[in-house]
Automatic annotation (TrEMBL):
Lineage: Bacteria, Bacillati, Actinomycetota, Actinomycetes, Pseudonocardiales
Keyword set includes DNA-binding: yes
Residue stretches making up the HTH tetR-type domain: 8-68
Species: Amycolatopsis oliviviridis
Residue ranges: DNA binding: 31-50
InterPro entries the record matches: BetI_C, Homeodomain-like_sf, HTH-type_TetR-like_transc_reg, HTH_TetR, Tet_transcr_reg_TetR-rel_C_sf
Source superkingdom: Bacteria
UniProt KW keywords: DNA-binding, Repressor, Transcription, Transcription regulation
Pfam families xrefs: TetR_C_6 (PF13977), TetR_N (PF00440)
Name this protein carries in UniProt: HTH tetR-type domain-containing protein
PROSITE patterns the record matches: HTH_TETR_2
Amino acid sequence: MPKRVDHEHRRQQIAAAVRRIAADRGLEGVSLNEVAAEAGISKGFVQHYFASRDDMLRFATTTLRSGLEERITAAPPEADPTVRDLLVALLPLDDAARDDALVANAFLVRALKDAEIAGHFRTGHGQLRDAVAAMIAAARDDGDLLPTVEPATEAGLLLALMSGLGDAVLLGYQTGEEAVALIDLHLSRITATPRKTP
């Protein structure tokens, strides 16, 4: 009986090789030959799944959020992630998160000239903004945040803050601890005063 091939797993395997190369050398280091070598497969095998380098890069763009999602879900199952947890997970505070940030930045440059990749970025950003806004709305409704906080606007501000902080940490302008302290400072400005118990 012929062995059944998990085609999605193979595509993910190739995308993971693309991300590793991009983190180390940028997208200029990504070629069909290099990806095949990194993945431990033949160039023909890569071409079986992706007709061109562009096709491969476009698919790899759809996998960029996997590292972030893993960091967010790494919290104990009994603890729901907070807005702060999500924001801290966006920072390049360890090797894996740093690699994810380097890869995202490499693809961001590519997105400026590739409408499909740009579309993936817009979709991903919209999903992330909606997730942050939903968490902010829930925290506001629970009385943890000021009642004047507008979730969609605050989510946009927070993601803009995270973009700048992430680049600052990557480039060494700020340490991870300084970036987290700035997140805490901002959140303290929208945090409701705890209710006193009688």
